[in-house]
Amino acid sequence: MDRGDRRGPPLRRQDVLDIEGVSHVYETRHRRVEALREVSLSIREGEFMSFVGPSGCGKTTLLRIIDGLTAQSAGRVVFRGVELTGARRDMGFVFQDINLLPWRNVRQNVEIGLEARRLPAAERRQRAIEALRMVDLEDVAEVPPYTLSGGMQQRVGVARALAIDPQVLLMDEPFGHLDNFTRETLQIEIARLWAKLGTTVVFVTHDVDEAIFLSDRIALFRGRPGRLTRVIDVDLPRPRWEFNVRAHPRAIEMREAIIEYLGVRADGQG
Amino acid sequence: MAAVVAVLGLWQASGLFMNPIFISTPAAVLAAFVRIVADGSLAQAFVSSLGEMAVGLSVATAAGFAVGLAMGRLRLVERLFDPFVSFFNATPTIALLPLMEIWFGTDVRARVAFIVVICVWTLVINALAGARNVRRGYADVGAAFGLGPLATMWKIVIPAAMPYLLAGMRVAMAQATVGMILGGQEVGESGLGGLTEAYGSFFQTDYLIAAIITSTGLAMLLFGLLKLFQRRFYPWIAATAAARR
Amino acid sequence: MTIAAGPVGGGRRLRPARWLEPLLPIAAVAAMLGAWQWSGRYLNPILISTPTEVGRDLVELVARGVILEPLAESLEEMVVGGLAGIAAGIAIGVVMGRYQVVEKVLSPFVNFFNATPLVVIIPLVIIWVGISQKARLLFVFLIVLWPVLLNTLAGIRNVSRGYVDLGAAFGLTEAQMLWKVSLPAAVPYILAGARVAAGLAIIGMIVSEMEISLTGLGYLLITYGNSFLTGRLLAVVLVASLFGVGNVLLLRWVQAAFFPWIIGSAADQR
Predict the structure, then answer these.
(1) Which domains does chain A have, with CATH numbers?
(2) Pairing mode, if any, of strands A48-52 and A200-205?
């Protein structure tokens, strides 16, 4: 499903992931925190959706709820018509902290999702190497992860998520801890991978430019309490790595509008 | 290095004007050492001590880690066991030696039981800390990729807790060594402890010091083995130490 | 934090209700005492006695003063030997930390004695000073010395780069650096050493009493053990335990009262 030469607005695809009235409230010793208040959103098959907002607006919490890492206080997550409870078999997750297990080498890290699915060793190995090939890292399959640079480690993290052949790919500020140069390289790499695979992607970031570069739609969040305020269409041509997105007039327009709308000040507070 | 030689020299010289009963001389100690190696008594004591320690440590490790890990992951278990573990951890468990003798008589079982009783608490506490302090991110990986509770424990919790477990083993080894020697001195005259007791009571200082040095050697051997084990099987602990601080 | 924020496959199911939690330890201890008492009916009381018998013996021993004198003696040895060992350990540790030459010279010996299970040295101590209180004091002194020394040394050496630069920037003399910066920065390490020392002092005391003397708690332990007076034996063990617990609490208080700026416990250098 190569969408490399599509122009114009995205085709209207079917809704595949429905978030219905999800809330998340928790209590600390000092206060009651409403991390999310009644978020409802539908994500379409094969689209690249970003959650954008300042720190503390609940976008990471929502992503974790979708993946079942955190339980919602109210509401439900429905995937292909089935309400999700318990472990998500078809979703891959890429962490902001990368979280490669240091006691396993790169290939073993990529295999971990496959182990949970009880695949035989030979098949696991083959699929892991394939996943590593997708991110251009099959050469370092047998090394310990802590010998790799941050960017390479995160690419392994992506391979790990892709290895299970996920229906949905969830990425939580995956490039947040990397330097600018590495970040830009990886953004292009993700864009290419997505164009090739056509997987549904939900991508969390506080970087507006990153979201504009990558996404079909952007869901805007504000904090205290965390809530979804608007969803905007990113009507820029694809492939986006072939031109200077930042200089595109429509992109500049969107960027200004988003920043103003979120009321994001220089310090990133919303 | 030079300092060691200098001290040895001084030590030897002291034999000229001090009653050798007090600290003997390096030459005499060496001679004594050779003698007890030759007649096999040192080897026998060494093996006997090592054997008791091995059994005691194994039992303590198996039980201690199992309980500690369970306590670290299951709040119910932790709440139930905590009063006992805290109490015994603060207790000078040495005091329980006579009790071990009452239970097991004055033989090897009492000594092994004593070793277990001394070092199991440290192992529980370290395993508890290790299981509790698994980095949130690692636990998330287990959850995100669908590992069940047993798989999570085996593939994530235990490896992640290794730094704590190994640190606990280091301390437990030191404690077990003490227990082994004390047991050897008090409960029958066995192993290296028994040797020191015997040589001491006959004022055979040269043999005594030889036995003391051998005991230290045994302890150092065990620590060294643990270090090698860590380096070979868990190189990532040293490599990622800075990040964990 | 929310009870939901745990690994999906983890301990959530077996988590007791909030109100139940503080009761569980009490229930566990009560259950243990009950089982212990009940076992007395079937087991030879020599083995583990019963709580009531131990309690009765304890009261009796205290009332008859049997325990008080040994207790006072034990306490005296422990405190005198322990404090001397701590003082010497700190002093030598500081000197070694300050003068690299001294450290290089003494290091092999210190490491040797630290690795030695000092119990082996008891016969040697007896040869030196005979079977006397001096022997016990010396033993406690020796057992406490090494961990304190090593911890102090580690503390002084680990004065971070930042502090050293601070001293250089403000033109402090060597002596001033030592007193005003290195020593205070080493306090967490020294306290960790003191914690270890306190535990060891009790052990040293009891061991030396078991082996070297005719008085003290250790002697009581041996005597009751040999006579199979398990009730009294356990009563003495209980007293020793209280000693140990008391030590821990005392040190915690000392740290909180005099060094409140230390957060958490520092590296333990054993």
Answers:
(1) 13-90+188-264 (3.40.50.300), 94-166 (no CATH)
(2) parallel
Higher pLDDT, B45 or C131: B45
Task: Average the pLDDT over A152-177 and give the result.
Answer: 95
CATH code for the domain of B130: 1.10.3720.10
Taking alpha carbons only, the member of A236, A248, A253, A161 closest to residue A6 is A236
List residues bridging with A24 in a β-sheet. Answer: A36
**Number of Cβ pairs < 8 A linking chain A and chain C:** 19
pLDDT tens, residue by residue, B160-180? 999 999 999 999 999 999 999
Rounded Cα distance, A74 and A20, in Å? 9
Mean pLDDT of C23-43: 86
CB C145 within 8 A of CB B221: no
Q: pLDDT exceeding 70 applies to what percent of chain C?
A: 90
Residues with Cβ < 8 Å from A193, sequence gap 6 or more?
A: A134, A135, A158, A162
pTM for this one?
0.83
Mutate to test the interface with C, among A28, A36, A69, A77 (most CBs of C within 10 A): A69
Chain-chain contact of C2 with A26 (C-beta, under 8 angstroms): yes
Query: Is-contact B168 B72, C-beta < 8 A?
Result: no
Task: Show me where the domains of chain C are located.
Answer: 63-258
The total number of structural domains in chain B stands at 1
Measured between beta carbons, which residues in chain A are less than 8 angstroms from residue B155?
A: 112, 115
Compare all CA atoms of chain B with the CA of C246 and give the residue at the minimum distance.
Answer: B90
pLDDT at res. C5: 35
**What is the extent of the structural domain holding B62?**
33-237
Mean pLDDT is lowest, of A133-147, B40-54, C158-172, for: C158-172
CB contact under 8 A, B143 and A102: no
Residues shown for chain C: 270
Q: Which of B144-148, B172-176, B187-191 has the lowest mean pLDDT?
A: B187-191
C1 close contact with A: CB closer than 8 A: yes
Report yes or no on B37 lying in a domain.
yes
Residue A172, sorted as left (phi over 0), alpha (psi -120 to 50) or beta, turns out to be beta
Whether the CB-CB separation of C154 and C189 falls below 8 Å is answered with yes
Mean pLDDT in residue range C154-158? 81
Whether residue B131 is predicted with pLDDT greater than 60 in this model: the reply is: yes
Cβ contact (<8 Å) for A87 and C9? yes
Per-residue pLDDT, A42: 93
Q: What CATH number does the domain located at C63-258 have?
A: 1.10.3720.10
Instruction: Give the pLDDT band of residue C240 (cuts 50, 70, 90).
Output: confident
C-alpha distance from residue B15 to each of B5, B26, B35, B206, C53 (Å): 16, 9, 20, 12, 56
Alpha-carbon gap: A68 to the closest alpha carbon of chain B (Å) = 7
- CB atoms inside a 10 Å sphere around CB B213: 16
For residue A99, give the nearest of A142, A59, A42, A158 by alpha carbon: A158
Tell me what the mean pLDDT of segment C220-245 comes to.
86
User: Cβ of C116 and B219 within 8 Å?
Assistant: yes
C160 at interface of B, judged by CB pairs closer than 8 A: no
Q: Do B146 and A117 touch (CB under 8 A)?
A: yes
**What is the β-pairing status of strands A15-27 and A32-44?**
antiparallel
Query: Is position B139 within any domain?
Result: yes
Chain C closest CA to B10's CA: distance in Å? 14
Is 50 exceeded by the pLDDT of residue B13? yes
Q: What is the DSSP letter of A41?
A: E
CA B208, CA B205: separation in Å to the nearest integer? 5
**Residue C11 touches chain A, beta carbons under 8 Å:** no
User: Worst-scoring range by mean pLDDT, B54-58, B83-87, B177-181, C63-67?
Assistant: C63-67
Q: Are B216 and C112 in contact (CB under 8 A)?
A: yes
By DSSP bridging, strand A168-172 and strand A74-79 are unpaired
Q: Check A87 against C8: CB less than 8 A apart.
A: yes
